[in-house]
Amino acid sequence: GIGGVSFDNRMWNDSVIPHAYFHSLAVDPKYRRQGVATRLSNWLYDEAVESIGEDAVMSALIQGGNIGSVKNVHRRASQFFEKRALIFPTKSLNKPPRQNSELSVREITSEDLEQVVLHQNNFYQDYNLYPVESEQSLSQTLQFSPFGSRQNSYFVVVDKSDNLLAGAMLADRQGLARGEIKRMPFPLKVVNKALRLFPASNIIANISVNQLWFKDGHIAAARYLVEMLRWKYRDRASNLTLWVDRLSPAKRIYGSRVFMLKVKGHLAIKAKDSTAEDRLIFIR
After folding, report:
1. With a threshold of 0.90, does the pTM exceed it?
2. Beta bridge partners of 23
3. What is the pLDDT of residues 112-162, one digit of tens each?
4. Do residues 52 and 44 make contact, with C-beta atoms less than 8 angstroms apart?
5. For the chain, what percentages of helix, strand and coil (3-state, to nearest 5) are there?
């Protein structure tokens, strides 16, 4: 089995405190139901406590339907937010979206860092678990290239006066791993045959859309940004995945599309101080 824990600082009830995020817990099917996941989780938790202390905030995102993981995290969680995460695994586009003559999409430059950080922090100022950004931290993230190529890119949509209206970071982890669908549920097979949500090979080449933000009144600009990125990365990724809080205005990017596939996830939190159930949460 495998599992990971990442450390950073996040907002929690209006204070920035140490945070541990537990992720990637998986067990070889041949060794499931033998306590492997529990032993891994215990070891990761002990590592987190030793690294940042028991008073830190700890979180884990669990895909809906993963009963074993839900039972596992309930042992230590002080709060459990059921179905709070919405995951939209949108497929790449095979034809360009309709152009908007009033808007253009471009990658940011070093001159944009100050404004991008300002807009992003402003959008997420009331979100728990948000990692407050700085020009330095964003620059370091964009320069991160462990395999000789950059893992992260940041795009914005601007108007004719080059005013920033919306933005998002793209995280490309295909150098680390790709997903493969081994057993697709029958209902999803039917939907996939009609909508072609996943490639015939069942190999998922995914790029995550993170830190999505938009200025008040410009959700259409954010929608345009996502659609253009689905087209731009068509040869690189089979899917672009957007992660949002179910209560976030960002979920309206996809409106009420009937055939939009979305996966629901649960968020488990261990924190010294509880938070309001309706407070917005930064996912990922």
Report:
1. no
2. 4
3. 999 999 999 999 999 999 999 999 999 999 998 877 778 899 999 999 999
4. no
5. 30, 35, 40
- Return d(Cα 265, Cα 66) in angstroms, integer: 9
| Phi-psi sector, 139: left (phi>0), alpha (psi -120 to 50), beta | alpha
Q: CA 56 to CA 61: how far, in whole Å? A: 17
Q: 254: Cβ–Cβ under 8 A, 6 or more apart, which residues?
A: 88, 90, 223, 260, 262
Backbone phi, then psi, for 10, in 5-degree steps? -135, 160
Asked if residue 248 lies in contact with residue 84, where contact means CB atoms within 8 angstroms, the answer is no
CA distance 61 to 24: 10
* Cα–Cα dist 213/158, whole Å: 13
Q: How far apart are CA 163 and CA 106, in angstroms?
A: 12
Beta strands in the chain (DSSP E): 2-12, 15-26, 57-63, 79-91, 104-107, 152-158, 164-172, 179-180, 203-204, 206-214, 239-245, 263-270
190 has a pLDDT exceeding 80: no
Spatial separation of the C-alpha atoms in residues 42 and 40, rounded to whole Å: 5
pLDDT digit string, tens, across residues 248-271: 999 888 755 545 667 889 999 999
Distance separating alpha carbons of residues 108 and 181, to the nearest angstrom: 34
